[in-house]
Amino acid sequence: MAIEKRVTHSRKNKDGDITHIKAGGSIISKELAIIYIDAGLYGYYTYEDNSRADVYVYNKNGARHIKTNADRTSKNNLDNLPDC
After folding, report:
1. How open is the CA angle 48-7-59, to the nearest 5 degrees?
2. Rounded CA gap, 8 and 5, in Å?
3. Cα(56)–Cα(50) distance, integer angstroms
4. How far is residue 30's CA from residue 11's CA, in Å, rounded to a whole number?
5. What are the phi and psi torsion angles at 20 (to 5°)?
6. Would you say residue 36 has pLDDT above 90?
7. Rg of the chain in Å (alpha carbons)
8. CA 81 to chain centre
9. pLDDT tier at 70, thresholds 50, 70, 90
10. What is the model's pLDDT at position 58?
């Protein structure tokens, strides 16, 4: 079973793509987060405005990215978290 870690911050590049996340006090690259998720080591989530959103891996134009599930608020989206 994966250890769950709350994502509190994110870093974006000039195109707005997530490049890093801060979870459990550590800043890690998007690529490392994807490895951890795929291996089942860690599960990441955000929690803002009393709403939890799980982080998952998706493919876009042949590249792998991370994002949160859509729900009732945008405050818990990775794009909207404070910069790290």
Report:
1. 105
2. 9
3. 20
4. 9
5. -145, 155
6. yes
7. 12
8. 10
9. confident
10. 96
